[in-house]
Design brief:
410 residues, PH-domain like, 7-stranded mixed sheet, 11 helices, 18 strands, 25% strand, disordered N terminus
């Protein structure tokens, strides 16, 4: 099977963000951040004195993280590394080049993007990226940070700044529409000087990175007793919490404004503005927080994939990103067994199609709240929409736990 790629990016030259555009958008975003989210920035003096070029890394707990980072690092301008999917967004298309955005494939080797970043550094640009590659599903750091990030830092050989916010997930979790008004603390630190990068072993750089990315918004909210105001705090939560802890039924959970209810056994659990899971009598919940419930689901997946005959398969509609536009390309089944995730079906002309990706090289996948998952193969983004309107989170957990099992990761 052959598939068209996006236009040749070898002609895409990195450029500094347009100054007028930057100073129109970023201060406005900073103002909104304070008004809506009460963002408080704690920035080390070493960062304030920093001269570019540098690399800015950030935790990715909410869609606003990019705006928070750009605001916190003013007056420095940033060339933001974005998933190729971002370039399909209508508000982004007209300003992508002016903003100096750099495209990158998610969870796939992207040599072209690495070269662009190196060229950007060479002309004095500051690079901003979120190595986790996607917004957190459960309010914590991604389960696995690739050691290749430490090698990449060695390769760029510039100072590294870390932007870490607490409260971003609680303000706008991936499963929620709209915003919850609370409080966000943004910490900005210099975690590597250029001299440290030159002298440190890759393994030591990696260890420091893993520590820098750790966070848990649920614990932060509970310890600080922060209320994130919303009339519908639980609405949409069934997207990630799909397995009932009472009866074990999957994808029978539904959410109301304030509750999660299992349609199979009627177990009812309240989720309030303080991020607490509370059982509505006569029901019970073994979990106090979302991340604990999510861990329960991960544990059941970990057990399931050990079976020799493990297989998960569901019908999907297949779309392909060509020149920053998604077009329907066919339909079929998307399955995962113990070694591969694979689409088997046909294109719109009825020709057979098979797209296979080995799990041993895939640490996670991109999931959409529209109940779809993305796979990037040879620079082409393939999107698979589940016809039943569910399963994307379960597929994500299967991919992640399969990778951990194959590589014997803790």
């Amino acid at each position: 099977m052959s598939m068209k790629k996006n236009k040749d990016e070898s002609t895409y030259a990195p450029r500094h963000p347009n100054t007028l555009l930057y100073w129109l958008l970023v201060p406005f975003a900073k103002f909104l951040g304070w008004i809506i989210f009460k963002v408080q920035v704690h920035k080390e003096s070493a960062v304030k004195k920093l001269q570019g070029p540098f690399l800015a890394l950030g935790t990715h707990s909410s869609p606003m993280d990019v705006a928070f980072m750009m605001s916190a690092l003013m007056p420095h301008k940033l060339n933001v590394v974005c998933a190729r999917d971002v370039f399909t967004w209508k508000p982004i298309k007209p300003i992508a080049k002016l903003a100096g955005l750099i495209p990158m494939s998610q969870f796939s080797m992207d040599i072209a993007s690495v070269r662009l970043m190196k060229k950007a550094i060479a002309i004095g640009c500051n690079i901003a990226m979120f190595p986790e590659g996607k917004i957190s599903l459960d309010g914590r750091q991604l389960h696995y940070i690739s050691p290749s990030l430490a090698k990449f830092i060695k390769f760029l050989n510039v100072p590294v700044v870390m932007c870490h916010n607490n409260g971003g997930y609680s303000s706008r979790p991936k499963w929620f529409k709209g915003f919850k008004r609370g409080k966000i603390d943004q910490t900005v630190k210099l975690i590597f000087t250029k001299q440290e990068i030159e002298s440190m072993a890759v393994s030591d750089i990696y260890s420091r990175l893993v520590d820098a990315f750790k966070y848990n918004d649920h614990i932060y909210q509970k310890e600080n007793k922060i209320k994130f105001k919303s009339k519908t705090p639980a609405l949409g939560l069934h997207y990630i919490l799909y397995k009932c802890p009472n009866c074990g039924a999957e994808y029978q959970m539904c959410s109301t404004n304030t509750e999660l209810i299992c349609d199979a056994c009627k177990n009812t659990i309240e989720y309030n503005e303080y991020g607490e899971l509370l059982a509505a009598p006569p029901w019970r919940t073994p979990f106090e927080r979302i991340d604990q419930w999510y861990d329960y689901q991960r544990a059941t997946i970990r057990e399931a994939i050990l079976k020799e005959d493990f297989l998960e398969s569901h019908p999907v509609v297949w779309e392909v990103n060509e020149n920053n536009t998604y077009t329907e390309s066919g339909s079929g089944e998307l399955y995962i067994d113990r070694t591969n995730i694979c689409f088997v079906g046909s294109d719109l002309s009825g020709n057979p199609v098979e797209i296979k990706y080995p799990l041993k090289t895939l640490s996670t996948i991109v999931q959409k709240t529209t109940e779809a998952v993305d796979l990037t193969i040879d620079g082409v983004v393939h999107r698979f929409y589940f016809r039943e309107g569910k399963y994307s989170v379960k597929y994500t957990l299967i991919v992640e736990e399969s990778y951990r099992h194959i590589h014997n990761l803790n």
